[in-house]
Design a protein that fits this description.
The protein is mostly beta strands and about 120 residues long. Helix content is about 0%, strand content about 40%. The chain has strands spanning about 10-15, 25-30, 30-35, 45-50, 50-55, 70, 75-80, 85-90, 105-110. The strands form two sheets. A five-stranded antiparallel β-sheet has the order 5-9-8-6-7, with no helix packed on it. Strands 1-4-3-2 form a four-stranded antiparallel β-sheet, with no helix packed on it. A hairpin with an 8-residue loop joins strand 3 and strand 4 (about 45-50).
Length: about 120
């Protein structure tokens, strides 16, 4: 295929204001990516756009398998709260809603979001 550029699981981006930290999510425009390296603001870095990752989540929030998840850019974590946040994927596991339950497993999804 003549128009193929590259696979889309990990793409090179420019680090936004404040830079990026390896393993932490960040927004690039309206796209949520997980940085694969730590990079200073303006530096190029690879961001994971697809896959299943373990990441910080909103505390005291229970997740069921298949729950729609959103990226809370201000707190750098995933949440089930849609308002003011960016759709990012789905829960891949059950997480209790205790204050100490601050990590969840997320299937990143950047396409097909028809709801806001």
């Amino acid at each position: 295929m003549k128009n193929f550029v590259q696979p889309g699981e990990s793409i090179e981006f420019t680090a936004p204001s404040g830079g990026v930290v390896s393993g932490r999510g960040t927004k690039i425009g309206d796209l949520v990516v997980i940085a694969t390296v730590t990079a200073a603001e303006g530096a190029r870095f690879n961001g994971l756009t697809e896959g299943v990752i373990s990441h910080a989540k909103a505390p005291s929030q229970a997740w069921a398998e298949g729950d729609r998840l959103y990226w809370d850019e201000g707190n750098k974590r995933f949440t089930k709260t849609a308002g003011g946040n960016t759709f990012a994927g789905y829960s891949c596991g059950i997480v209790a809603g205790g204050a100490g339950d601050t990590t969840g497993v997320v299937l990143l999804s950047h396409g097909g979001d028809l709801q806001t």
